[in-house]
Design brief:
158 residues; mainly alpha; 6 helices; MarR family transcriptional regulator; WH_DNA-bd_sf; DNA-binding transcription factor activity
Length: 158
């Protein structure tokens, strides 16, 4: 069976793919130029800064980033070498480990955030009116929830 999209849906899909790739590339380039951080570095720092005790179990961090365990290990190891995060045994479970935000990581985040938020505003948000922002929020919140459920179901079946 061959699946196809009607013209409107195919046009929307292609516009989404091309624009989202260009947007991500522009945001990452701006972030690297301003701070030396990758988008993944920044996201890790944000999640840890918002977590209780500025620490998260590696599994939870991987889930929040939508990273495989091996990709997260690589990411955290890279950030550890630069002093942005530390990896420590989980106090509740000696078998697990947590990523912990360091003082240097928090400083890097605080320095990068104004530049990154300016880039987000100028590259995306300034072109949208309030109704479009509300629509994007609805679409991606719903899509994210559905996809999270799909990921959870896939993991529980393996």
């Amino acid at each position: 069976m061959t699946e196809s999209l009607d013209h409107a849906r195919l046009t929307a899909w292609r516009a989404y793919i091309e624009a989202s790739q260009r947007l991500f590339t522009r945001l990452e380039d701006d972030l690297r130029a301003a701070s030396g951080l990758s988008f993944a570095d920044y996201h890790v720092l944000v999640l840890l800064s918002e977590a209780p005790g500025q620490r998260l179990r590696m599994g939870e961090l991987a889930d929040r980033l939508v990273f495989s365990p091996s990709r997260l290990t690589y990411q955290v190891s890279s950030m550890q070498r630069r002093g942005l995060v530390a990896r420590q045994p989980c106090p509740q479970d000696g078998r697990g480990s947590e990523a912990v935000l360091t003082a240097a990581g928090l400083m890097a985040l605080r320095e990068a955030a104004p530049h990154h938020l300016h880039s987000v505003r100028t590259q995306l948000m300034d072109d949208l009116d309030d109704a479009e922002i509300a629509c994007l929020t609805r679409i991606f919140t719903r899509l994210g929830r559905r996809l999270q459920g799909t990921v959870d179901a896939t993991l529980s079946n393996s």
